[in-house]
Amino acid sequence: MSHSDFEPGDLIADRYTVIELLGKGGMGKVFRCRDKLLDKEVAIKLLLSVDAEKEAMRFQIEAKATARLNHPNILRILDFGQTESGELFLAAEYLKGRSLASEVDGYGPYKVEEALDLTAHVASALSHAHKNHVLHRDVKPSNVMLVDEEDGSRTIRLVDFGLAKVTAHDDRLTGTGVGLGSPAYCSPEQGDGKAVDERSDIYSVGCLLFYLLTGHPPFQADNPLATIFMHLQKEPPTLAEKGGTDFPAPVEALVAKCLAKKPSERPQSCDELIELIAEAQRDDPDAEPVLQDGSEKKGPKGKKVLVIAAASLAGVLLVLLVVFGIDQALLSGSLTNRMLAHKGTTSNEPRGPVIVDHSEAVELEGTWTDNDLRRLIKDPNFFQFMMNDQKKVRGDGLVVLERSHAENVDLKGSGIDDRAFDHLSKMKGIRELILDNCINITDSGIIKMAGSKSLARLHLAGTRVTDKIFEPLSRCPELDHIDLSNCHQVTGKSLGKMQNLAYLIMEDDPNIKPQLSVLKTLPKLTELNLSNCALGDSDLAEFKDLNLESLKLRGNYITDDGIIQLQSLRSLKRLDLSNCTRVTLKGIKALRSKLPENVSVLPDLDQATNPSIDPANKPHLVQPSGAHKFHEAFGEWRAKDIPLKIGNDVTYLRFREMDNDLSGFEQLKESKLRILDLTKCSIRDKDLEHLKALPNLEHLLLNECHNITDEGIGRLRSMPLSSLELLETNITDRGVAYAGEIKTLRNLNLERCPNIKGSTLGTLKSVRSISLKDSSGLDGKNLGKLLSIPHIDHLGLSNVGLKDSDIASMAGVHVRRIHLSNNPELGDKTLAVLSALKDLEWAEVSGCRRITRKGIDQFYERTVSEGRNVELHGVQR
Fold first, then answer.
1. Is 138 known to be catalytic?
2. Distance of CA 787 to CAs 762, 764, 834, Å?
3. Which residue in 10, 117, 138, 806 is the catalytic one?
């Protein structure tokens, strides 16, 4: 398939599902896609043609040069390679934002303090690149993006390393005219075709700063050659001459030094440039040093104010245009919308530690460390403290909370570990503690809260706590609310010790099923949320004697026959059965007739608001808004319904958690169906035999199909599948071996499969992506079997209890990317093994607690000395 034929729902390189075409130009096309492996949106650039050998080489240089860099101010390249038909592609993070060129062109120059701030961060990005032997050679306003992050903050990204030079190697593309950059921003030596080094990029940064302050580059003639000649021969103008106003002397001197004709007279490194910027900020009473601790403009009482910006559709598209060189004229619609800041605040983003004062609440934005907490939070007179997603905070800095009167502490997604509880446990008035997705905390830390006399609400969703926390927490007299959603190591067996519990949330935790009887031992329980816990009709009998007022059972496997049992809940006021796809409106109506009139039941009986539910539960397809050739199947399907209602033209089909007779697929021998999602469907091994009739089926999802066994996987051996997902199924090593017999298989998802020990991993010789995340039965000694696989692009081994000795058995494995997060026993010996893997480009080791600074330094010493650039995520370099 040529990339010109890619449509929504199609796969690029067996990994990236196309969502939409964002733009196209002479060089290629850019698509917005979803990465099936990382479950995130990415931007995919496809090179239009590889007929021009130099263009193809430059494309690969851009990918390799940028992929080796890991810095918050540099666009991240996630992947690059070739499609099945040989087209070059590059996958980058999908961003929202606008370029500095668009900002200045539309709204004029920046203020001095803002321009210095932005320039410091560009210099920081270049410093990282230079230390990794990469020159940019095309620094200019259109290659610096203001990006709106998911948390509402704004950062900058340096993009477009298409002219990058890897200084440690011979660059055959450098020469007269090649790698020239943009004439208005290129250095004299670059324009003259001479050798360039880091100081050439620094000259370009000087031109960038000049532009940010005046709205004009220092030199601009009628044609490129005349502009280059000015860089070579003409003395640069002062800021005052171009800007028409006076500028502080230190700023004039800084710009003049950067624009010196001789490289020896400029700052000799970006680190020196950053220091000079800091000096200019210190000498300017209106400017604030931002790079050191990221502070923004000061508001009342010296508090730093958070600048929030609203992203426009234009910004979303423009970043892709700039990064990938797409012709803006080929996109419809206006690209003139401005991202506005509130009440006259500046549009540049908060960088380092920023305090947002909401009267009696304090919110931390930017990037914080424990030292920042101790240094900057002087007045603990607040009642709510919010510090979300602060990965660098470990907990020592929370000593500042011991003196506060905070009742609500929100630390979700932060990097805190058990040491944080040394301080949280000393807070006298804390009522609510939110620790969702704090993956570094353990039972040991939570147990320290046992002495709290005030704690009433505890949120632990997405953490690694176990049942060991219940007995100590039962000694908290006020604790009556706990959220344990997505805590897969909690079974609920000891929940009965928490006699004061009134509100329990355990979403996405099927482990609770065998322990439902414990709910009867909680006399005060009135609100219960067990959504997405794989509950069936028989499980509902356990609710019979509960005194519940609110019950949420969203997304479970229950039917009309099961929900009628809930009529015994005479205290019930709110019932949520949304996304229980086997429940019909008829069943809901029957249940409501048995309940008191004041009970609120979801989904509502209004059919207009519930298009996925048919009153008679008839089989029907729903095409989500904006989807192309993607359909969801609802209702009770019989074999004859499949050819009649699906036909041959659907390419992506998802059945919604139903009992399905799949024999009807045998009549679709001309079907174009490529992706079939049977997640949570009650199908059995024999049903899979019918799928052999589908000639184009490439991707099969059997996630959470608990009736599928090894025998079912054996029935797939002759099918031309390229991707098979078996998350949370009961297959064993025998089933893995059967999957290995599928010669076309490239991607295999075995996450949360507890019966897999790994003895047959070596049979997966054609598979390029394997994920065993959360598969608790895996025997690490079997990882040596992976040596039999010639090449692995992605290997997922997060949270499987590995030890250093297990990783040692992997010595020599040919793997490019590996996830080892949340294996707390892994340490420096693991890093030593990873550093020796010659194909390794990327490794995630967050939550590997025995890794030390010495091990990290030794890892980089070895990989850098061998000329390899391996990204190590989850630790600070």
1. yes
2. 7, 10, 14
3. 138
